[in-house]
Every structure is written in structure tokens, then in C-alpha cells.
# Entry
Amino acid sequence: MLLPAVLAALAIAGPAAGQTEVETHSGRVTGVTEGAVLAFKGIPFAKPPVGDLRWRAPQPADRWPGVRAADRYGPDCMQIPYKADAAPLGVKPAEDCLYLNVWKPAAPAAKKRPVMVWIYGGGFVNGGSSPPVYAGTKFAEADVVFVSFNYRLGRFGFFAHPALTREAADAPSGNYAILDQIAALRWVQDNIAAFGGDPDNVTIFGESAGGASVHALMTTPLARGLFHKTIVLSGGGRDLMGPLRTAAEAEAIGSDFARAKGVEGSDPAALVALRALPADSVMSGLNLMSLFGAKDFTPLFADGRIVRKSVDDAYTAGDGAPVPIVIGANDADGFFFGGGIDAAYAPLAPVRPAAEQVYDPDGKQDAARVGVAVSADLMFLEPARHVAKIIAGRGQPVFTYRFGYVPEYLRSKLPGALHASELPFVFDTVEVRHGAATTDRDRAAARIVHDYWVNFAKTGVPSSTLGGRWARYDPAADNIMIFDADGAQEQADPIRARLDFVEGVATVAKAGSKP
# Structure
């Protein structure tokens, strides 16, 4: 009777210390030892989405014989990398890209460990799981099983066409990137226990487009039950990528793109021709540098099954998963590309006199700082607070933050924490990003931010022995945890007046857009 009990205990704990072979539903994999951590990289979670599987929902991976070496990243998804990426890719992109990675503590455990699943950003046209900044080593060292994965980007990840709609019939289609994310989360449910992870304690977190993806997963019934906590970093809360287009509008955009490539019609022959296009032709120059001028691409459109309505409308309607959420952004999260003070106020041109009183009442700020503040408030800071209010009003645990820590060597050069600059701190990989310029104070800031994220995954409440325990968000108090050069302090939001102003503008604009 003793042997069955021992085997059962080992099944709960996952692989023994130093054991690098794990049985998944598709076959055995062997990882590599990285100090006190085991890493498994490049595990297929779906068939390669190439040939006839281009623009189809992800299909289960084929079972492989023997033991598959999981010792290197699979290709990141097809894209055109750009030099200014805050998290440069570590491998060459390819259309065959649906792979994931797992980091786990090497030591056995008496019970299953919490799981954290990372969703990268990049405007839905760039990004991947291979950047060294995104390594899961520090999470595993903190007794978490960490997972990252790839999802299709650009027109591979988001594409509508009348022929595709007809082919899919009643099945979900169009927003293939979100279907990839759902497939990865299903893989976690089916396989993570073999790595010692707890499928009933899964936290998903993502930044920018990854944060928008978390909102999409929170509000689609197709992902319900696949996760239990969420973290949204700079993921908006209104329509981050612009007004949500309808399926008909997305089909029209896809048809225009097809015609530009010499593909006419909406019959099966048109699909054959589209799927035969070279990958470079499908990309057609699309990446973050060209995204905002691209009229022939639309991510996250309302297909009716995966994405059904705008983020805030979905939460207001009660469509959000009833799970705890951490949500926030960076203090200088906006984008300003120059052009003087008129360009800085351009997004608020109809209410510019009032905006000037909010953003620069003394007339002393330069255009760049005003432009960054206006952009950050419109895109990330106010939308995050907006959905926090909605979710908190439904009785769900919500915790809000703003990240404002700037590495010491950059403080004289930057207006604050720029978009994506928090990620090396969340992952505790600041030295990977900043190298020899990293200071002890930078390392300490990373430890506390990382600690909060890990403990939220473990308990549902962000806490740290270095900075205390967060209070739930109270819309009346407008309390927020702020990370800056002074550490972590929870307080009433010091820029509440700015966000109240933007909220008023957004409310009027949305009301005016409705028939």
C-alpha cells in the first residue's frame, strides 16, 4: 500500500529535483538545468499554422515519438523586427511559431505551485517569447511555474475575408492571435501539473498589446475557466488600438488587401491563392514603425465570437471573468514624436483651453512633456482607471498601480518611466536590459516590483516584505500604488485632476459617437 501513496505524492509534486524529462499530452520533453531552475523551451502547443492551416484556428500539436529536446526557443512569430524594440528578439521569426516555454524550480514540492503565464506586447505586429528580458528564471526561483508562449502577429494573427468567414461557418475566426492564446492556456490546463504547476491557480499577465489581450481573454466566454487572476500592464481599458471595427469592416479591409495582392473573389480559389502568398508578401512592410499609418490592417475586431464588444462595454455588461485583477501603467507611457506645443495638444484640440489649465496652468512645461502626458493619459492611464472603476463596482478585487521608477543613469535624460520600461523590473532582469549601468538601487526596485507580482499570483493580493500589502482599489478614494525613486507608496492618485478631465472628454466623445 505504500508504493501507490508514494507515486501519488510524486505526481502532485511533479518531476523530482534535477529531473529534466516530463511527459506532456503530446510526448516527452527534456529541458535544461539553469542553477536551481529547470527550463523547457520550444514545446509545440499547436500544429505549425502554415499552408492550409494559415488563417485557421490553432490545431492540436501532433504527438512525437521518443523524447523531444526542449533546450532552445522555437521561432518567434513572423514579423519585421525593429531596432528600437525594448525587448529585442532572441531568435529568427518564422510562420511556424506556435511554441511555448516553461521554467520551474528544480526542487520538488509538497504541493502544486502557482502558475504565471506571460503574454508579450508589440502592437500585435511585433514581439515574442524569446527576448532575454522575458526569461522566467526569477519567477521559478520564487517558487512559481512560469510559462511564456508565442501567438500569431500582424495579418497572420488578425485577418478577415468573406471567403474565410464562409469557410469557418459558425466557428470562431479572424482574431487568430487570441485563439492562439486560448490554445496555449488550454495546454497549460492539460499539462502544467506534470511540471509541478497548479492548473487551478493560473495568473495571466501581459503588457501593451499583451495587456489588451488579457482584457480580450477576460471578456470572451471562450477563455472562461482557463485562468484565475490577471495583471494588465499598459493595456488600456478603452479601445487601445482605436475604435473597434465590425466584422464587415474587417472583411472589407481584408478584401482590399487581397486585391492589392492580385487575389479577387471570395470563393475557395481565393483562399488557396491567399494561403499561397509568401510570408513577406503577407507582412507587406507591417511592423510597429508603420502600424499607425497602416490602413490595410485591423487587430482585435468584433468577430462576434472571440471579440464581441469594446473592452469597457464588455465589462459594463458583466462579461468580464470574475477574478482578481491588477491594472496600471507607467507615468510617461505616452508617445510624442515632436512638432511643438500644437502637436502636444492635438489629441485634445476641441478642448484645448481647458486642457492647458490641467496640463500646464503656469505655461512652463515644454511640448515634449505635455505631449507625453496627454498621450499617456489618453491611451493608458485613464483607460486603466476607467475599467478599474467598472470592475470594482461589480465587487471584484481590483488593485491599481503606476510605475515611475527610472534607472539611475537615465534620470537626467527621460521625463519618467517610458512605455515598456517596467518589464525588466517585473521580470527582475534589469541587468539584462541595462547592463553595467545597473545600480544597487535599480536592483532593489526590481526585487520589490517582482515580489508584488509573484505574491499576487500566490495569494490574490499584491504584497511584499519590502513594501507591505496593497489595499483594494476604492473609486471614492482613488487609491493607487506608485513605484518611483522613493520606493512603493500607496496614496490618493496625485494626477487625479488630469484623469478626471480625460474621463470627461472620453465620456462625451463616446456618447457622441452613438446614434
User: Anything to note?
Assistant: The mean pLDDT is 93. The longest helix spans residues 367-393.
